[in-house]
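A further point concerns the way the authors explain their paired sequence and structure data. The central task, working out the structure tokens from the amino acid sequence alone, is never made concrete. I therefore recommend that a typical entry be quoted early in the introduction. An entry of this sort, consisting of the sequence and the corresponding backbone structure tokens, reads as follows:
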Amino acid sequence: MFQIGFPELLTLLVLALLLVGPKRLPEVTKFFIQMGSKLRSQYEKISNEINNEIGTEEIKKDIFNDMKLQELELGNKESEDEGK
């Protein structure tokens, strides 16, 4: 998702120390981790509800079956052309 390297991580740590201070940094970090976890949980819950409601698995299967059917038809057409 995010590609954070060592320089970016170090910059974030220095900024956090300057803005929050070393005494409150663990408390603030814990808060952000908890909020991130809650947000991710809510996102997954909503995403699963939407997927179940519109039936994405069935749509994926239909698309896969259509693609396989097209491949078979193309293969049959090519074999007919070779036979001529």
Notes: The mean pLDDT is 86. Residues 8-83 form one domain. The longest helix spans residues 25-54.
